[in-house]
Specification:
The complex is a heterodimer of chains A (553) and B (72).
Chain A lengths: L7 H22 L5 H6 L6 H10 L4 H14 L12 H17 L5 H8 L2 H34 L3 H50 L2 H6 L24 H19 L1 H8 L4 H17 L4 H12 L10 E2 L2 E2 L4 H9 L4 H37 L5 H26 L5 H25 L5 H23 L6 H4 L6 H26 L30 H18 L2
Antiparallel strand pairs in A: 1-2
Helix pairs in contact in A: 1-8, 1-15, 3-8, 3-11, 3-12, 4-13, 4-15, 5-10, 5-12, 5-21, 6-7, 7-8, 7-15, 7-16, 7-17, 8-13, 8-14, 8-15, 8-16, 10-17, 10-20, 11-15, 12-21, 15-16, 17-18, 17-20, 18-20
Chain B lengths: L8 H25 L13 H20 L6
Helix pairs in contact in B: 1-2
Classes of the chains: A mainly alpha (553), B mainly alpha (72).
Chain lengths: 553, 72
Amino acid sequence: MPSIGLTPIDWIIILIYFAFVIGIGVYLRKFTTSEEDFFLAGRKNSSWVAGLAFLSANLGALELLGMTGNTFKYGMYVAHFYWIGAIPAMLFLGIYMMPFYYSSKIKSIPGYLKLRFDEKTRVLNGISFAIMTLLVSGINLYAMALVLHTFLGWNWDISMWASAVTVAVYVTLSGLMSAIFTEIIQFFLIWFGLFLVSIMGIIEIGSIDQILNRLPESMNTLWSTSADPTQNGMLIHWSGIVLGLGFVLSFGYWTTDFLVVQRAFSAKDLRAARMTPILASFFKMALPFIVILAGLIAIALSNDPNSGFKLLEDGGQVNYDSALPMLIKRYYPSGLVGLGVTALLAGFMAGQAGNISAFNTVWTYDIYKSVLNKNASDKHLLWMGRVSTVVGVIVSLGTAYWAKSFPSIMDYMQAIFSWVNAPLFATMLLGMFIWWITPNGAFWGLITGMLSSFLMYMGVKFHWFNESIITMSSVQSDMAANFWRAWWAWLICAVVTVVISLFTKKKPKEELVGLVKGLTEEKYDEHLPFVKKPEFVAIISLIVLVILNIIFW
Amino acid sequence: MTVKGMKPIWYFVGLILLIMGGIIFLTGIYYLLNPSARFTVLSETHPNIWWGAIMILFGGILYIKNRKVTIS
């Protein structure tokens, strides 16, 4: 298979990046003296720092390559992941949920479950999150090694170990602090390294309108073909997008996944914490101008026989994930190729560092201190954080080799999210907004939701029943099935939680002050003029979201 | 962010963009003087030069603004 050739200049740029991130880890080591420095980066970040890190932690391997590849496969519908599938949830987190998270001084999401419900719900979520994080982390590593091997011809093992060791070094040295520092550097490298692909594509083809005009209608709109699943590339009805992606998967991920929410916990005060996801929403909305636009450019060029552009093929199958690397190869001369490859590496390592820093916190506080060593000192917890970082990376390497044996990692990854995050969102939403939801209701609802999602996945995979029962449509794609499965898992968890709560012992209201809406005094930023309040910035974000959806309707 | 004497994150962002932008810009100058060195689509627009210059400008502003800043 042909690979992108690297010149010495490209190698120099890649090596500068590796040296830089390790150097930052060493530099920050002397400033990391307490467990709060290690796990929460000292709780002194501005909303800009926390906001960019919040977004970068989500910019993993599958985000950059997978979403560009998915655009090639499904068309512009993939932009829903960035707009309706992210922005409302991020704003909801900032406006309504963050005050409860931040003010309760918790160190993790399972920590909130302990305060709101009980220890068993916390441990259940802590264990499922830790397992999910290590699996996703391994898949992230595997995907990165696969890309470096396929497109650059690098040795599979060496590329995986080199990146894993680099992440282990800088996260072990200074924990969340160096993870956040490098995530922000990675954010800028991703923009400078990959946005040029879209610019060059527009220059070559003429304009965004001309790119869209070269695509079939099923590929070049967001909503206008969504009333009939047979008319759009994703084979999904708009209700599946709104309920499955826009509501359950999106809110489940952005409001409860500790990987991203941890960055907001590092903010210096409540206002900065609330602004964190709101500021990040603007950058999230801009990302389609890298990944979606590049995917659309790749379709337009592939449809033109004179362009000489085509994706790689593996054993007769088109490799959709090769869209972005093939565009880099097409447009980037030496030097820029090094920057483009560095941007991809930065994305991989930002995602990896995010997973590992979230894992070491949940392991240390919600499993180790909660179950195994309740009297551990702060110094011991700092040591445990460093040890669990190294162990987490080693386990990730193991899961990466395991993931190698799976034919479709994207399918596997989406399934994991719908098992853990979708039902958890029902538990969090009910627990945060309804005071009479009980600890037993939450625990059994969460277990039932997770199991039902798992069984739906296995049932379809092993043909126990037809997928159309879940999607309520005679036609569907894998992505449509993921959206609908998430919706049903959320609904089952919510119904079971409510029903069991009606018949089990409730927590006294006075124990829930500061944790549940309606029992908590909510007076935030009252001294600020309206234009400086998070609510105002969130309204601006919402307006931009509506405008983008209308433009590309 | 955070402890006494620490350089702000924007200093490091500026520094790495400045270094990488400088290398890419100089590579572009080399290609301008040796046009046959490597051919890519739209290479006649010399993307190394203008993209490298944008990186130098952006990185340089961040670097200079934060060069003497430490955070306590």
